[in-house]
Amino acid sequence: MINNRLYKHPILPVTDRPLFNFYWRGQELTAREGETIASALFANGVRIFSHHHKDDAPQGIYCANGQCAQCLVLADGFPLKSCMEMIKPGMKIEPLIGLPELPAVNPDSCLDFQPIEEIEVTVLIIGGGPAGLAAAIELGSRGIGCLLVDDKHRLGGKLVLQTHRFFGSVEAVYAGTRGIDLATRLEKEVRQFPSVEIWLQTTVLAVFSDKKAGVLKEGEKYVLVKPQVILTASGAREKSLAFPGNTLPGVYGAGAFQTLVNRDLVRPTERLFIVGGGNVGLIAGYHALQAGIQVVGLIEVMPEVGGYKVHKDKLTRLGVPVMTSHTILSANGQKSVESVTVARVDEQFRPIKGTEKTYDCDTVLIAVGLDPVNEFYLKAKEFGCLAYAAGDAEEIAEASAAIFSGKIRGLEIARDLGFYSGEIPDTWEKTAEILKSKPGQTFPEAYIQKEAGVFPVIHCLQEIPCDPCSAVCPRKLIEVDRTDIRKTPVYLEENDPRGCSGCERCVVICPGLAITLVDYRKNPDWPEITIPFEFLKETITPGQEITLVDIEGRELARTTVNSVKSIKANDRTILIKVQAPKDVAKRVSGLRLQTAFEPAEESYVERMADEAIICRCERVTAGEIRKLIKEGIRDINEIKTITRAGMGPCGAKNCTPLIHRLFREEGVPESEIIDQTKRPLFIEVPMGVLAGLQRRNEERKSGQ
């Protein structure tokens, strides 16, 4: 039996949870308490969940966020999104092959319809991620009544997937704290306020013209909520890409991957390839390495990655090839991903013939940006509701910016409701702008001339909002401009005549792992270097020979490990101590973890871009839609009528941006395009639930 569960992790606690049996296609398998159906299937090596009724194409996980329908299965006879439903003992799971038969209904049974409950609240907060939690804390601290709803089984949003330390300001947004710990901290804080009510596993379905919100509470009960204020903090959804093989099982978003690995502790892949060099893709690659997964490579179509350089440096140091000015041509395989083909692009981002390379892998992560989940905010504004948006629903940025965005929106709502009479502090607005800013200038690496004593070497060369290293130094020897924390940190020994004590705090807390400590006191010719390391302690052992590399991953020296320091005070960051010749000591930025992967020898087989699937739900290709555009159609509603693109259960969330992209590729200006009518419900829901049909206790128990 295949077992892909993680039993050790360098950052995440792995606790023993009760095991129980369930059935997949009649075969008895083992699940772990707290797993979703999807994670239980992946843990048992199942990657194909169903086949599409139109062309029998294999279907697997894609978003793992409830916003598509790729992972549909039949669970005890009912079609369910496996990424959102918790596995239960004895559950019988079957693949969804073709269109499911409706469950049998006894015509003599008495149907029990109850009136739809309607409640009034002061503030409805949609989304329990960093922005929603920060807003709820601001409102709850003033005793303002809030209903906070989130579709997951715990609060924190994407914070619960982040094992790395966060950037930003220590004072404003807890920079230097790991995302998983920050989620716990914010949840604990918000739950202390009696005025904040929390509904988990609850989805807002729509905002209506009567200024009420339809809410599916805990997946079963439909409730109408009438708020005085609506705050949309529902985050973002991942953008997709159209290329041949883009719907093969094994092609999915980085968020889905992080959900499986960091939330569900499932190892879903052996060999991973990443498309996209923003922070999401770079961080996902690092999380994969922490879970013991080989990262074959990462490509970015732009000449440089869009994410923080320190995230890129972490990967290159560890041996992951990062290929800029590259694009994906195809994902290859019969039933699931077996390899990926990429190529270099020219200045117009067109693939350069003859530069194709194919890499063996079993998973391709798509991390090419995010779109705001702002449908509720737009509808609320359209219908004249008092509405706000915060976090990624307002503007795509880092989680630290989302926290501060929620804090500001919370205070603005308090002011509008009469609970706060002042203005939003100017310093808050400035901090928010700094936290939302993109990476700035990158400087060449420079080193102080000193070769005596002990001191930190700062390998952080790019302007990004971050200040934990300066905040933690007990002698104030590291400075970050307090008026603009985007400035790169500087080591100023003159700030204290005693100099650096070698306390290692800056090495430990740096979110980018971009500080090493060089100590000449014992051996000036072979100084000792302290390197931060966030992997299992047994990965590196004293006496082991390792390769030291510079910031770009270039080999500097081979050496043996002096010691491995792992203490509770370092919050799961291990310190590796090695010695190296003094001529390279300051340049040492890390150590190599994996060797580079060579392209497969198979020749590239060209495939038509028109094969790419645009509408995943209805299996509509780029060629079908492109043909209609060339015929002069400019109304997406007409394309929808002819092809069914956008008519699937995802509600056109994934295909609409791709259709707009096809228009751009054909030279059609946005002003000529008529967008499709927005679907009224955010997710699909049984009609009986909307009508107030009550399921009897015995039916719940039997799953009928």
What distinguishing features does this structure have?
FAD/NAD(P)-binding domain, alpha/beta, 704 residues, globular, seven-stranded mixed sheet, 4 domains
Report on this model:
The chain is α/β, with parallel strands linked by helices and 704 residues long. It has four domains: 19-100 and 240-366, FAD/NAD(P)-binding domain (3-Layer(bba) Sandwich), CATH 3.50.50; 118-236 and 372-436, FAD/NAD(P)-binding domain; 454-591, no CATH class; 616-704, no CATH class. It has 18 helices and 35 strands. The strands form eight sheets. Strands 1, 2, 3, 4, 5, 6 and 7 form a seven-stranded mixed beta sheet that branches. It is globular, with a radius of gyration of 26 Å. The two termini are 30 Å apart.
**Large-scale geometry:** globular
The overall number of domains is: 4
What fraction, in percent, of the residue positions are helical?
10-25%
Note the total helix count: 18
SS-based structural class? alpha/beta
Distance between the termini: 30 Å
The beta-strand count equals 35
CATH superfamily of the largest domain: FAD/NAD(P)-binding domain
Major pleated sheet: 7 strands, mixed
CATH class of the largest domain: Alpha Beta
% residues in beta strands: 15-25%
Low-confidence stretches: 696-704
What radius of gyration results from the CA coordinates?
Answer: 26 Å
Output the CATH topology of the largest domain.
FAD/NAD(P)-binding domain
The CATH architecture designation of the largest domain is 3-Layer(bba) Sandwich
Q: What is the overall pLDDT average?
A: 92
